[in-house]
Amino acid sequence: MQIKNHCKLLLTFFFGLFYQISTAQNKDNSIFIIPEIVVGKTLEANTFFPETKLQKDLFLSLGKYNFDKNKEWAARLNYPKTGITLGYTDFGNSEKVGHAYTLMPFIEFSILKKTVEGLNLQVGIGGSYMDTQYDATTNPFNKAITTKINWSFRSFLYYNVFKSETLSWRFGLGYLHHSNGHTSLPNQGLNSLAASISTKIDTKKQHLDFEKPKFSSKSQSYFSTRIGIGQNVLSEKFNTKKEVFTYAASAGKIINNTFKFGGGFYYRFYEHYYDYINNNEVLVEEDYPHFRDNAYGYATNFGLFATAELLMSHIGFEFELGLNVYKPFYKIDWRLNQGYDYENANGETIEVLGELDWYYEIKRTVSARMGLKYYLWSTNTAPKHNIFIGAHINANLGQADFTELSLGYVYRFNSKEKS
């Protein structure tokens, strides 16, 4: 099955999150609006990266408090705020680096309340439309972004400089990131350090004397399975998107209906790997001819993983750390992507391949996965059966491998109260 523009589906997914967050209501209908002005510096993504001036951002966030006696996850996390952010970014070079238009769900926690009053941490992950990309002819030195739709991430610390009954003036410091999840190369990503001034405007006076419900400690065992389809490119020379088909199963514990921990196994089939072998490309012909004996087998990957997930009603934020037990083609993947070309004195282009060094061994061994899930039935009620869709970035260690959409099922066993 072909997906012509996988990233467009990701944007649709995040719009679904926006709809869920913006239409869900608290019992006291308490929401807030945050207009925010951000200035910062776009960091150089590569050698000879275009010069940039001051980065300027405008963000508008719509959020809500979670003072609801039925939301156990909110009580366990000390009632964080959640919402959606719309943003515009000028990276400081309109012609070569351009602008970003962002849609991003976020969660905000109060931290260090006993020592620093008014300090908050906000984390968001979503998608951005970028109006300027790398082009080998017209924009060869911007190797940060090569696709219009990209993943976006931001993490900010906010401090309340002044606070009244309905207004909070805030100063913030943070980090912003944009990249495409290895769906086109080059993909160095855009990283920025920034400061902000914002105002949190409450739609009505907040009742901070909210009577917090008491929940008993409990745990549930669960079993989960999922299928997925991802997209990536192999290298700059094999830069056409092709599919990665995935399957995984896991089991573990759900603690206090909020924290989900488990472990399992995954299986993946890379279409790029399979085609490279079947086409008898250079490295297969010269160094790995035995791959042709079983192209399907050598194009697969399986391994073990541990997972941790934060359950927040319909939304889950998940992080996985894995161990690649079998990924034979990564030898070729690494050598293609870690190599470089140069022109000799005769004007000939010479290709130098990457070496299979100690760093290769680490990246071949360690996998990671991070992303969001949307559950069909709210996890507040601890349903025995649930279905989810997910959007994740999969990585070799910290480097993006492929972007994935998944469909999964979770079964919960009976809950056990803790004494």
List key phrases describing it:
mainly beta, 8-stranded antiparallel beta barrel, single chain, disordered N terminus, flat, 419 residues
Q: In words, what does this structure look like?
A:
The protein has helices at 6-23, 72-76, 271-278, 282-286, 295-298, 330-337, 358-365; strands at 31-42, 55-64, 81-90, 99-110, 119-130, 149-163, 167-179, 190-202, 218-232, 242-255, 259-270, 300-312, 315-326, 340-343, 349-352, 366-375, 385-396, 399-412, 416-417. Mean pLDDT is 89; it is low at 1-6. The chain is mainly beta. Helices cover 13% and strands 50% of the residues. A hairpin with a 3-residue loop joins strand 10 and strand 11 (259-270). The protein is built from 7 helices and 19 strands. The termini are far apart.
Helices and strands in order, then pairings?
Layout lengths: L5 H18 L7 E12 L12 E10 L7 H5 L4 E10 L8 E12 L8 E12 L18 E15 L3 E13 L10 E13 L15 E15 L9 E14 L3 E12 H8 L3 H5 L8 H4 L1 E13 L2 E12 L3 H8 L2 E4 L5 E4 L5 H8 E10 L9 E12 L2 E14 L3 E2 L2
Antiparallel strand pairs: 1-2, 1-8, 2-3, 3-4, 4-5, 5-6, 6-7, 7-8, 9-10, 9-18, 9-19, 10-11, 11-12, 12-13, 13-16, 14-15, 16-17, 17-18
Q: What's the order of the H and E elements? A: HEEHEEEEEEEEEHHHEEHEEHEEEE
| SS elements, strand count | 19
Strand content: over 45%
Mean pLDDT: 89
Record the strand order, biggest sheet.
1-2-3-4-5-6-7-8
Return the structural class: mainly beta
Tell the overall outline: flat
